[in-house]
Amino acid sequence: MTTPLHHRRFPWLLSALALVLSSGCREAPIPEKTSPPEAARPAAIAEKPAAPPNTVTPPAPPSAAKPPSSTAKVNEIPPEEKEKLSGFISFISERDGQREVYIVQANGTKEKRFTDNKHADYNGPFSPDGKALLVMRVEGEEGPHKLYHWPLDGSEPKRLGPDTGRIRFPNFTPDGKFIVFESGGSKDLPSEFVDIYRIDSSGKKLERLTNNPEGNFEPAVSPKGDAIVHISSRDRVAELYAMKPDGKSPLRVTNTQRDEWGARFSPDGKRIAFVSDREGADRIWLMDFPSGEARRLTQRSPAPRVTEDKIAWAPSGQKIAYVLTIPDVPSAVVIFDLDNGKETFLHGPAGAQPLSEPSWSPDGRHLAVSVGQGKEQQIWIVREDGGAWMQLTKSAGGNWNPIWGATKSKK
After folding, report:
1. Which of these ranges, 119-133, 154-168, 246-260, 342-356, has the smallest mean pLDDT?
2. Most buried residue, 76, 292, 319, 350, by most Cβ within 10 Å?
3. CA atoms of 225 and 289, how far apart (whole Å)
């Protein structure tokens, strides 16, 4: 197993070095057991600024201190509740010797292998109509990368765009007509470093939406489809920018001397949550989109080794799930209630290690998470209050990156 891919820093400097160096260390094409291909995290180059006033109004939750690791056996989701779990979940499994995409009903039935080839496949989001899935394929250690629009009914998948050196963060527009993604480019897809592209769902019309040598990363499409938020390093730090769906009217959303990344729109599109180290530690911030004042989500002290990441909005927009990492303690999934500031820590079954990659059920009552158990990694379903759990996968090897879809597979 390879070492997990860490966020690469100083992307503007790397692009310059690429012109000088023709060989040497290269970035692994895909992270080891983490979310599907992620963007490099650009870095701040300035000294830490003074911390801005904290405008969060909810009181600090009593659970904000270091959470205890779970050792007691958790309650099982009862059969009658299990049968009512709707939709289906895609995930990556390594049980076959390479990474393939699998799909399983949320109640644990009808698990099936979705892709089957000698290359590594990674699941992207479901289409808005629930009839297809985006799949990223990496051929060999260093690519090329390929993007597919893959129907769930078993019909022939459709290639989207040419081979590239990097495909990450693919997103459907809400109407399903376009797919927006990050790419490092190729001979058929010019790019000085990393840029954002849009292609129609037929795979015929490819457009480059950004064009600056410092790099653009992590596109997130608004729920209304009227804006794309992304990271840009054009200002020599990683800031959030917004643009129209066609790439026009770029707008700088954040303006600090540190980094911002991982932006996620609220379900109504009126707010964004993102991660920033503007106070010296990776913390989640919240702001009205596009020009509200950013405010800290949690009241946790800015200890640099304690991090908040992997943001997932509940369908109601009233709760945010995220991953909390504390040194010497297994990472936890935390649910933050925006109404009262309460945090609920989700601790897995006895013997479980890190929890990560939260994905909400369509009704917001449960989450799918990846749970480390010794050398294994499995997917579990948990109530949003942490009161009961159900193991979804049991095969040997890694099973990770759960994405919960709203409708049932017909295949």
Report:
1. 342-356
2. 319
3. 14
Per-residue pLDDT at 28 exceeds 60: no
Tell me if the bond preceding 125 is cis, omega within 30° of 0.
no
CB count, 10 Å around CB of 263?
24
Amino acid (one-letter) located at 250: P
Q: Which two tokens stand for residue 139?
A: 């051929």
**What's the mean pLDDT when you consider all of the chain?**
83
Output 123 or 70, whichever has higher pLDDT: 123
Tens digit of each residue's pLDDT (9 = 90 or more) over 248-275: 999 999 999 999 999 999 999 999 999 9
Q: What pLDDT, in 10s, does the model give residues 187-197?
A: 677 666 899 99
pTM: 0.83
Q: Which two tokens stand for residue 316?
A: 């109601």
Which of 352, 373, 283 is CA-nearest to residue 73? 352
Rg of the chain (C-alpha set): 20
Q: What is the pLDDT of residue 143?
A: 82
Cα–Cα distance list, 201 to 128, 166, 175, 411 (Å) = 12, 19, 10, 21
- CA 99, CA 165: separation in Å to the nearest integer? 19
- Amino acid of residue 395: S
Measured over the CA atoms of residue 373, residue 376, residue 377 and residue 379, the dihedral's sign is: negative
